[in-house]
Amino acid sequence: MYDYLIVGAGLFGSVFAYEAHKRGKKCLVVDKRNHIGGNVYTEKMEDIHVHTYGAHIFHTNNQKIWDYINEFAEFNRYTNSPIANYKGEIYNLPFNMNTFNKLWGVVTPQEAKAKIEEQKNAAGVTDPKNLEEQAISLVGTDIYEKLIKGYTEKQWGRPASELPAFIIKRLPVRFTYDNNYFNDRYQGIPIGGYTGIIEKMLQNIEVRLNVDFFEKREELKGLAKKVVYTGMIDQYYDYKYGILEYRSLHFETKVMKDTDNYQGNAVVNYTDQETPYTRIIEHKHFEFGTGDKTVITEEYPSEWKPGDEPYYPINDDKNNEVYRKYKELADNEANVIFGGRLATYKYYDMHQIIGAALVTVEKEFGS
Ligand code: FAD
Ligand code: UDP
Fold first, then answer.
1. Ligand 2 neighbour 99 (Cβ under 6 A)
2. Ligand 2 nearest atom to the CA of residue 181, by list position
3. Which numbered ligand comes closest to the C-alpha of 29?
4. What is the pTM of this model?
5. CATH code for the domain of 356
6. Quick check: is 208 catalytic?
7. pLDDT tens readout for residues 232-282
8. Residues 207 and 163 both lie in one domain
9. How far apart are CA 253 and CA 52, in angstroms?
10. pLDDT tens across 296-338, in order?
11. Which domain holds residue 119?
12. How far apart are CA 99 and CA 93, in angstroms?
C-alpha cells in the first residue's frame, strides 16, 4: 500500500513526490510516457542536451524557488535573448530600444514612445479587450503586424482578435537597450540538462513508465490512500462537461551535418504567417557549446485533438468556463489532489509549477 499514487512524472508530480518521500511517505509515480520529466525532459544527442519538448529556460523572481531548484542542479549564466526573423529582416526581442531603432530609426526612448502613441491613437485602441488590441496598445501597429500577428495566429490557430490579452503581456516591453527576454532576477539553464533534476527528485521513489492511468484506473487507485493527478482534468471526469481545448506541437529535431553553428542564437522566432514553424531552437547555444556538431529543433504548432500531446491550454472565456465546472468537482474530491499545467488548465512556467507544488505540499503536510 502506498500513501500517494502520483500520476505524471513531470515537474509538479516530481516535486510533490520528493517532498512527500522526505516526510516518510511511500509514493508510486506513474507516467504514460517512456521517460520521466514531462515536458522539461532533455536528452543527449551529439553531446548536446536537447530540449525534447521545446526550449526551456528557467527564470524566477522568487529567491525561495531559485534556491530550491539549485538544490538539484547548478545553473549556467544563459540569458534568453531570442531574435525574430520576419521575411529575412532580423529584430531583437523582447520589444525594446534595439527593436524600435531597427524598425523606425528612433534613437531615444521619447521618440519610441511617441511613435507607439501615434500608432495606438491612429488604431483607436483605448481599452484593449483582446490580444490584438493589447498588442497595438503596447507597441503600435508596425510591431503588431511584423512581429506579433503572424506568430500568434500560427501559434494559437485563431485570429489575434479572439485571443485573451494576457498572453501577450508575458512579454516585456522596454524602453532600454536590453534584449533580456525576462524581467526576473534569476535565470539560467541547468548544467547537465533538466532530466538530471528530475532524476534527483525521484531517486529512491518507485516510478513506473509506460503506464496510462486510465488504462488501469481502479487497480492503480486501489494501491494508494491518495492520488496526486497531473494529467488533463477533463479526461479525469470523462469529458462530462465537454472537452477543454489545447494547442499541440510537433517538433522536428535535426542533427546538422554541414555546420557547427546553424543560426548563431539559441532561439529564432519566425514571425511571418507563411513559415509553417514558429521557432527554431539551436540547443548548443543554451550551453555556450563549442563542439563541431549542432542540433536544431523546428516547432510546428497544430490544433489539439484527443490522443495528441496537449501543450498549451487555450484560456479563453469559453474554455475557462468549462474548466470552472471541472474544478468544482475537483475541489470536492476528498482523496485526489489536482496539480500542474494540465490538471489546473493554466499556462504555467516551471517556476510557477514549483511554487504551486510547494503550496500543495504545505497544505498536505503543514510546513
Ligand atoms: P507536464 O510536464 O506536462 O507533466 C505531466 C505528466 O503527466 C507528463 O509526463 C504526462 O505524460 C503525464 N500524464 C498525463 N496524463 C497521464 C495519464 N493518463 N497517465 C499517466 N501519465 C500521464 N516553462 C518555463 O519556465 N520556461 C520555458 O522556457 C518554458 N518553455 C516551454 C516551452 C514549451 C513548448 C512548452 C509546452 C512549455 C514550456 N514551459 C516553460 C512550461 C513547462 O514545460 C511547464 O511549466 C512544466 O513542464 C509543467 O509541468 P507539469 O508537471 O505540470 O506538466
Ligand atoms: N509572441 C509573438 N511574437 C514573438 C514571440 C511571442 O507574437 O516573436 C506572442 C505569441 O502570442 C506567444 C506569446 O507572445 O504565444 C507568448 O510568448 P512566449 O515566448 O512567452 O511563448 P512560449 O515560450 O510560452 O511559447
1. no
2. 19
3. 1
4. 0.97
5. 3.40.50.720
6. no
7. 999 999 999 999 999 999 999 999 989 999 999 999 999 999 999 999 999
8. no
9. 8
10. 999 999 999 989 999 999 999 999 999 999 999 999 999 999 9
11. 95-169
12. 7
